[in-house]
Design brief:
2 copies of one chain form a homodimer.
Chain A lengths: L9 H10 L4 E2 H10 L10 H14 L2 E7 L7 E6 L1 H16 L7 H8 L5 H31 L8 H25 L6 H6 L9
Antiparallel strand pairs in A: 1-3, 2-3
Helix pairs in contact in A: 6-7
Chain A binds a DNA duplex through helix 2 and helix 3.
Chain lengths: 203, 203
DNA sequence: TCTATCATGTAACCAGTTACATGATTTT
DNA sequence: AAAATCATGTAACTGGTTACATGATAGA
């Protein structure tokens, strides 16, 4: 039972994580997140950065520490994690690790409706997907390998390894699926093609 | 490059799919979606139903056909798919089948931050996750089996089979991951435990 | 010095969810 | 006849994204 968090945006979790190491200004948070490659795992943009910092502050998880000034730039408010923020961070992360979430990936939706396409088109599209999946796999593989070559510990790459694992599972699934459609003996294509006989007219 | 759709909510895709078979009233759409089990693949609720129908109508993908009346109930506007809606439906579904989307599952976010937990706690939580994953697997397996027993064609269960495949991949991944942490020879636990020596103080 | 990019913030807009409201059937 | 639940819709709120705005530094 996913507890209702006062702040639900995962960007907040990443922020609390960084702030647990040292207080920071908003912009530094953004830069750190960007440079650290967290954007691959957590969606964020300039706008949400401000929004989420506001939410965290209102919830009492972070607090203004001081307002520094560097050069002639505008003031920069430094935020620090509060004790309550630290507790929330741990609890939330623990929940995310233990409890699988019911999510709604686009491909699941596509599969649930794929019968609406004629079987030969479905197969054609699925084969295209296989190409894309291979490309993506190569990309992630490369990203991991270059990071490892730069001595990034494997621990900091687990999320990418996980992506790879899921990607491989999806690839196998799609291959098997196209097989089940096209098998000359037991393939679904004929039956499938039937309820595409008379398409309903447009309006 | 995921084209920018005029209506982006996947609920709209499911609606167009049903409307491509026959015109319907909003409430029927909701009921059909519910009874058909689409809620497992596509998030929707009473409120979004109205919103999305409005969006589809404004975009010209569906149009009012007639307003019927049954018994003493309020009028019910019947919507039908337009030709432009039919085209959009096909194009969108094709895109979803061919193009893997970059998504942000919660577990990926959790993994990207898991180093913030002490290794032994991480392992404990991951093992709890394994239990949950097994439960979920059993549930989906059961759902598939009862459906098959009721002669639902396998084609209409592919999205659940896909879930199973992904679930299995995740299970293997988590098992391997815990192994890499706890291995008595080469495990990451010692090094990992080190940068948890002195936690920064709360504010 | 001009231009690009960095750094910083606000305002307006759109999507999505929740809560409210209400009459019509069906069940007890 | 009361209670439940079905059927239907609107309004208000919240979260998130996009667009606008602007001064500061760095590079050409």
């Amino acid at each position: 039972m996913a507890t209702k968090r006062k702040v639900g945006n995962l960007l907040a979790l990443a922020m609390m994580s960084y702030l647990s190491q040292q207080p920071m200004h908003r912009y530094d948070l953004g830069r750190t997140l960007r440079d650290h490659g967290d954007a691959r795992s957590i969606k964020f943009n300039h706008g949400s950065l401000y929004m989420v910092v506001g939410q965290l502050a209102r919830a009492g998880y972070i607090t203004e520490l001081e307002t520094g000034r560097a050069g002639q730039r505008p003031e920069r408010t430094i935020y620090g994690l509060t004790d309550s923020g630290r507790a929330e961070f741990r609890a939330w992360l623990a929940e995310l690790v233990t409890e699988p979430q019911h999510e709604y990936p686009h491909f699941v939706a596509a599969l649930s409706l794929i019968a609406a396409l004629p079987p030969d088109e479905a197969v054609r599209l699925l084969r295209q997907r296989l190409d894309r999946l291979r490309e993506e796999r190569a990309e992630i593989r490369g990203l991991i390998d270059t990071s490892l070559a730069q001595n990034v510990p494997e621990l900091f790459l687990v999320e990418e390894e996980y992506r790879l694992a899921v990607l491989d599972a999806e690839t196998s699934f799609v291959e098997e699926f196209t097989g089940k459609i096209t098998d000359p003996e037991t393939g679904w294509a004929p039956a499938w093609a039937q309820f595409h006989s008379q398409p309903a007219p447009g309006v």
